[in-house]
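Sample intake sheet
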Amino acid sequence: MELAWAGLKQYVRDNNVNFRLSDVQHLAQEWMLNLKTATVTAYLNHVYNIEEKFKKSDAFTEQLEEDLLDDEEDDEELDSEIEETTD
């Protein structure tokens, strides 16, 4: 979405000579009508790639959290065993 928005703003900025709201609306519509399929595909592929990175990062974080919690439980069990043997 941000990539498309940036492209639209740049197009309007480059082509807006009268600075009227109606011209901005016309330029925005013109940009959307002339948008190439390849550009839209590139926008969508970028979004999919970022989404996959977030999914992998989330899975890694969840695994790390699980491992840390398991280590904490192991440490508690070890502390309990040490206390029992020293008593």
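Comment: The radius of gyration is 28 Å. The chain has two domains: 1-35, 37-87.
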